[in-house]
C-alpha cells in the first residue's frame, strides 16, 4: 500500500528523523495578542504588550524582503527586534496610499523612505508620551531598544506602557530621521522573520488560499520566445470534468510577438 504524505505533513510530524541544524530562537509572525491602540500611520501599530506590527504590502518570494522592510521600520522606531511582527496587507485596500505590487527588486527601494518616516514618527510620539508621563523636558529623553529612557534619572518606560498615551497625541509631520552612523540593525545580520514558519510547515502560501467559488487557471505557454497562437480547438478541453472555460490571451506590451517577454527580456 502506498501512502501519500505531503512535505508539510512530514515536516510537522518528523518521526524518526533528526537533522543536525538549529534555528534562531525567534520570531514567528503572529496575530495580535493584546490591544494595539497606537497606530500613528498605515505602516505600524504598537500594542500594550509592546509588540510592534508592520503592515506588509510586499510579497515574500524567498529573498528576505519582508525582514528587510521590518528592519527599516524597527531601525527608525528603535524597536526591540524580538518584538517585531509582520501584519497583513491593509484591510481597506482602497484607502491605501500606494500600489500593492512586488517585482523588479523594488520592495526595499520603494519602501525605504515611507518606512523610515513611519518609524521616526512613531518614535517621536512615544518619546513625547514618556516625557509627559514623567513631566520632564522632552529633550532629556531618548528611545532605545523598545523603550524610552530618561537620561538624567535612568528611568525607563517600555513602548507597551506608552502606547495608549501616545495614541492621544497629534501626529507630527516632520519627525527627524536617525543619522545612518547610529544604525544598529541595518547592515547587520538578524534572524529572518519568515524562517521558523517555513521550516515547521505552518506558513501560509498563495497556493494554500481558497475562497468561495474560486477557480484554478492553468496557462499553456508558447514553447519559443516571440511565438503567438495561430489557432486552437478547445472542444476536448471544455469536455473535461470541471472545466468552465478556455480563454485565449491577447498580446500585450509584455506578451506576444514584439513584447518584452517575446523578445526574451
Task: Give an overview of the whole structure.
The chain has 265 residues and is an alpha+beta fold. The protein folds into two domains: 17-200, 2-Layer Sandwich (Aldehyde Oxidoreductase, domain 4), CATH 3.30.365; 210-265, no CATH class. 25% of the residues lie in helices and 8% in strands. It is built from six helices and six strands; from the N terminus they run H-E-E-H-E-H-E-E-E-H-H-H. The chain has helices spanning 7-13, 65-77, 107-134, 159-166, 195-200, 235-239, and strands at 44-46, 52-55, 84-87, 141-144, 147-150, 156-158. Strands 1-2-3 form a three-stranded mixed sheet. Helix 2 packs parallel to helix 3 (107-134) and helix 3 crosses helix 4 (159-166). The longest helix has 28 residues, at 107-134. The model is unreliable at 14-33 and 260-265 (pLDDT under 50).
